[in-house]
Write a structure and sequence with these properties.
The protein has helices at residues 25-29, 135-146, 160-173; strands at 5-6, 56-59, 61-76, 81-84, 89-93, 100-101, 106-110, 113-119, 186-189, 193-198, 205-206, 211-216, 221-227, 239-243, 249-262, 272-281, 293-311, 316-317, 323-329, 332-344, 347-351, 360-363. The protein is mainly beta. The strands form 3 sheets. Strands 3-13-16-15-14-17 form a 6-stranded antiparallel β-barrel.
């Protein structure tokens, strides 16, 4: 259906006082439209005299409206985390970039003894030894149990039975059988890790907190940075579509949303606040073979089903406040008050008494 059709003016009639609304969904939605006011002479729905017809018309259409926006995103493995060396000695082996490490496996070696990955949300921050109590003890014991070591109760207390199990684990892993877990011997991460970049070389001294490598999770995800004004697009749990470089589209979902501050790139510049959205892929296999790429993320901020719409330019501002449309019926025209809803892609949702699908409304010159 065409949005606009030419209409011939009625001969012998002189035009007067038609309102012209400024087109543009963003301007009207912000309430900053510039338009001439059309008065009803009261609160009625029709003007007493419309001596001329509009120069063009459009139809009132029933449709589903979508408030969508496309934003660039970075496909990768997410933000990298630094692994600092806490165990003193000489680095004797480091992994290659891209290696995936799982629970119980060595990440790198110091004095030929492994630094081991285990799973959990609590970062290692102290030596674990008999008598120590806390959530980190429970976390470590859960990992021992998952690796096949038993004979102790998984709880918050590092007991003599825990010590015995730790010695068995140390013997099998190639560590000194002290029964204690020194700070830095274990890295706790939420799950398997992927080595992103190695920053310490073999034969380097470590142990003072120097950066050894940087790692990420193993899941593919997309990171999108939005202007604050577009915060409505990125809400946790919202479904999106991700368009990959070769044109394939895959479903996704906003997993996390952060507010980040970008420091100014130039001296004296002001920091800039951005909204960062992390999007997970519904089918991670769709990105197989793509190490890193710029993709397009299609956000849908709002969806309005089965609503009446007109072009934004068909709205006229009313002297009494609010908006209306000029309804054209044959050789006559009248103004009808409407309430506006969603603005999207040059159209606006409208409601009002007497409004119906298929009506002809006036358009500005």
């Amino acid at each position: 259906m065409n949005d606009t059709t030419a209409t011939r003016p009625v001969p012998g009639r002189r035009r007067c006082g038609r309102a012209v609304a400024v087109a543009g969904a963003v301007v009207l939605a912000a309430g900053a439209a510039t338009a001439a006011a059309v008065g009803f002479g009261g609160r009625g729905t029709s003007a007493p005299d419309v001596p001329d017809l509009p120069p063009a018309t459009a139809r009132v259409v029933r449709q589903t409206m979508l408030d969508t926006d496309e934003e660039p995103g970075e496909l990768g493995y997410g933000a990298a985390t630094t692994l600092a060396g806490r165990v003193a000695g000489v680095v004797t082996r480091v992994p290659p970039a891209g290696r995936v490490v799982r629970r119980g496996k060595p990440i790198y070696r110091v004095d030929n003894a492994p630094i081991v990955l285990m799973y959990g949300p609590v970062a290692a921050y102290r030596t674990l030894a008999p008598g120590v109590v806390g959530a980190d003890v429970r976390q470590f014991e859960r990992n021992l149990k998952a690796l096949g070591y038993g004979g102790f109760t998984v709880d918050r207390v590092y007991t003599a039975m825990t010590t015995t199990a730790v010695r068995r684990w140390q013997r099998k892993t190639g560590l000194p059988q002290t029964g204690q877990v020194e700070l830095g011997r274990v890295l706790f991460a939420p799950g398997p890790i992927r080595v992103g970049a190695v920053t310490a070389g073999v034969n380097q001294n470590t142990g003072g907190g120097q950066q050894v490598l940087r790692y990420t999770g193993t899941g593919r995800q997309v990171t999108v940075r939005l202007e604050v004004s577009k915060q409505r697009l990125a809400r946790k749990g919202v479904k999106v579509r991700v368009r990959l470089p070769e044109g394939t589209t895959v479903a996704g979902r906003v997993k996390q949303v952060y507010t980040v501050v970008q420091q100014a790139t130039e001296s004296g510049g002001e920091p800039e606040t951005r909204i960062e959205a992390v999007v997970s892929l519904g089918d991670p296999g769709a990105a197989a073979g793509i190490e890193a790429a710029v993709v397009t993320v299609v956000f849908t901020a709002a969806r309005r089903r089965d609503v009446l719409t007109v072009p934004v330019a068909a709205l006229v501002a009313l002297a009494e406040g609010g908006y209306g449309v000029e309804v054209v019926e044959g050789t006559a025209a009248r103004h009808l008050r409407v309430e506006t809803g969603l603005f999207a892609k040059g159209r606006v949702e409208i409601t009002g008494a007497g409004l119906r699908e298929g009506m002809t409304v006036g358009m500005p010159r």
